[in-house]
């Protein structure tokens, strides 16, 4: 990444005419609820990290996108299932504020391990190939309603 463009380099290092080629998922929570019958507390997917069944659901979900990325020659951007993993939502779901860091770290660890497993199994190419295989993006959604701006917080509050 260069300081002037703020764009993650495209697989293979160039942008080409179409820009960077990365594939990411879409609609994790919707897929889990409507296609798998999963009950998500307050539409939060991060509690799935706490059980083997939940981790398997997440792994299967993201693995499907890995197949598509490999087929079209794109890198895979694995976004953590942590849209609701901030202090307000974690406590609303029944957790403690101290769970925020653990949940977010465990989510990154799970997806990094999944990416490495997809490389080891040959689904995604290794970093030395024509394109970078995967990246993990830590996602933290809004503290309140995603459609209504709430109280603005400082970056320092989220650094702990």
Could you please describe the fold and organization of this structure?
The chain is mainly alpha-helical and 160 residues long. The chain contains five helices and three strands, in the order E-H-H-E-H-H-E-H. It has helices spanning 28-36, 52-72, 87-93, 99-120, 155-158, and strands at residues 22-24, 75-79, 134-137. The chain has a three-stranded parallel sheet, covered by helices on one side. The radius of gyration is 17 Å and the shape is globular. It starts with 21 loop residues before the first strand and ends with a helix. Residues 1-10 have a biased composition (Low complexity). Residues 1-20 are annotated as: Disordered.
How are the SSEs ordered, and which strands pair?
Layout: E1 22-24, H1 28-36, H2 52-72, E2 75-79, H3 87-93, H4 99-120, E3 134-137, H5 155-158
Parallel strand pairs: 1-2, 2-3
Helix pairs in contact: 2-4
Region (Disordered): 1-20
Biased composition (Low complexity): 1-10
**Taking all residues together, what is the mean pLDDT?**
84
Choose one word for the global shape.
Answer: globular
List the total number of helices.
5
Derived from helix and strand composition plus strand pairing, the structural class reads mainly alpha
Give the total of beta strands. Answer: 3
Strand order of the largest sheet: 1-2-3
Question: In sequence order, what are the helices and strands, one letter per element?
Answer: EHHEHHEH
Roughly what percent helix? 25-40%
Uncertain segments are: 1-7
Q: What is the rounded distance between the termini?
A: 26 Å
Q: Report the C-alpha radius of gyration, rounded.
A: 17 Å
Strand content: 5-15%
Q: What does the largest sheet look like?
A: 3 strands, parallel
Region (Disordered): 1-20
Biased composition (Low complexity): 1-10
């Amino acid at each position: 990444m260069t300081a002037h463009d703020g764009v993650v380099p495209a697989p293979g290092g160039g942008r080409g005419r179409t820009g960077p080629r990365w594939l990411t998922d879409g609609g994790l929570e919707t897929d889990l609820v409507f296609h798998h019958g999963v009950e998500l507390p307050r539409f939060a997917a991060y509690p799935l990290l706490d059980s083997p069944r939940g981790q398997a659901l997440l792994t299967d979900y993201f693995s499907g996108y890995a197949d598509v990325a490999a087929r079209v020659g794109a890198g895979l951007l694995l976004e953590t299932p942590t849209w609701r993993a901030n202090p307000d939502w974690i406590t609303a779901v029944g957790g403690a504020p101290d769970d925020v860091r653990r949940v977010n770290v465990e989510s990154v660890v799970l997806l990094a391990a999944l990416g490495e497993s997809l490389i080891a199994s040959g689904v995604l190419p290794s970093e030395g190939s024509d394109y970078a295989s995967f990246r993990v993006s830590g996602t933290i959604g809004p503290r309140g309603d995603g459609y209504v701006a709430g109280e603005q917080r400082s970056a320092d509050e989220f650094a702990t």
